[in-house]
């Protein structure tokens, strides 16, 4: 839903239960959950299918800097900020995910560089005392919260004019949307929200999934100066093979060049990547 209304009545408990039931990317590895081999494979798979993430986060750039991450999930990006020498503070709604992210940092000897709080970022001031961060980073999170605008309003209080916000929210018109329409045989654009709500995640039943176009994303970030906003990410792998942890291009993408794919991703990518500062 572009405007913030459709999911405003969903309780945060439902959102928490959903992500506790299956933390994001939990099946990215077939190794024993919580082991180093497991986390290594989760990271390899995530950045293999979403190579735009390291490029967007620019982990090395934040060496010696303070990073606030909203919604760290299993902590793949958290770990990489910490590895690069940043001091990371993360807030994550799902205690299951936060527990695994903490364990992950411990396994890599990086607990000293990252603090993970369990809580609802819509209530950030009750979790984190006032302080400033060089980077506020949130990848694929706030569109899953009933009131994303509240999170953005809080985030601004943890930024100075020199801080940067790097945010990924789902883009409203994407190749993935057309794929969902084809899968369900629904070609009625007035049903976008329903389609996205059903199909946005690896598991069905995600209680909240907003999506944004340039205009609604700018409205979400009211009071911020947008430095860059662009679409990225089309999933081009054959899904049956992908589920088996094999990587074979889906037939429709087999003969598409990298250059052409990059062009299409700018037009129809599923991830709206935004860099912004205070306005
Ligand atoms: C799709 S996952 C993304 C996780 C991580 N950023 C990543 O890229 O792997 C969404 C995450 O947002 C968290 N989340 C949703 N609403 C939240 C809120 N209001 N406050 C904090 N975390 C939230 C969920 O618990 C879940 O871990």
Question: Could you explain the architecture of this structure?
Answer:
The chain has 279 residues and is of the alpha/beta class. Helices cover 38% and strands 16% of the residues. The chain has helices spanning 12-21, 36-49, 52-57, 76-83, 95-107, 124-127, 148-156, 175-184, 192-199, 214-220, 239-243, 258-268; strands spanning 66-70, 87-92, 114-118, 135-139, 164-170, 224-232, 271-278. A seven-stranded mixed β-sheet has the order 3-2-1-4-5-7-6, with helices on both faces. Helix 8 (175-184) packs across helix 9 (192-199). The longest helix has 14 residues, at 36-49. The protein is globular. It starts with 11 loop residues before the first helix and ends with a strand. The mean pLDDT is 95. S-adenosylmethionine (SAM) is lined by residues 15, 19, 24-25, 71-73, 76-77, 91-94, 97, 120-122, 139-141, 144-145.
């Amino acid at each position: 839903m572009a405007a913030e209304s459709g999911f405003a009545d969903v309780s945060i408990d439902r959102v928490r239960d959903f992500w506790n039931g299956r933390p994001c990317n939990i099946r990215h590895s077939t190794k024993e959950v919580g082991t180093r081999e497991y986390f290594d494979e989760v990271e390899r798979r995530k950045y293999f299918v979403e190579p735009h993430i390291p490029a967007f986060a620019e982990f090395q750039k934040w060496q010696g800097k303070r990073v606030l991450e909203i919604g760290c999930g299993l902590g793949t990006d958290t770990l990489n900020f910490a590895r690069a020498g940043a001091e990371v503070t993360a807030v994550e709604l799902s205690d299951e995910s936060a527990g695994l992210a903490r364990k992950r940092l411990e396994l890599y000897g990086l607990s000293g560089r990252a603090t993970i709080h369990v809580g609802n970022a819509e209530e950030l001031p009750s979790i984190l005392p006032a302080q400033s961060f060089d980077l506020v980073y949130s990848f694929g999170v706030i569109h899953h919260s009933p009131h994303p605008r509240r999170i953005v309003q809080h985030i601004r209080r943890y930024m100075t004019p020199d801080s940067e916000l790097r945010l990924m929210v789902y883009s409203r018109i994407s190749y993935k949307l057309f794929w969902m329409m084809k899968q369900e045989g629904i070609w009625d654009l007035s049903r976008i929200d329903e389609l996205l709500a059903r199909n946005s995640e690896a598991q069905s039943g995600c209680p909240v999934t907003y999506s944004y176009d340039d205009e609604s994303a700018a409205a979400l970030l009211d009071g911020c100066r947008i430095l860059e906003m662009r679409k990225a990410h089309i999933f081009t792998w054959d899904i049956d093979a992908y589920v088996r942890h094999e990587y074979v291009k889906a037939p429709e993408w087999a003969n598409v060049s990298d250059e052409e794919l990059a062009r299409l991703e700018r037009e129809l990518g599923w991830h709206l990547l935004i860099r912004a500062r205070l306005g």
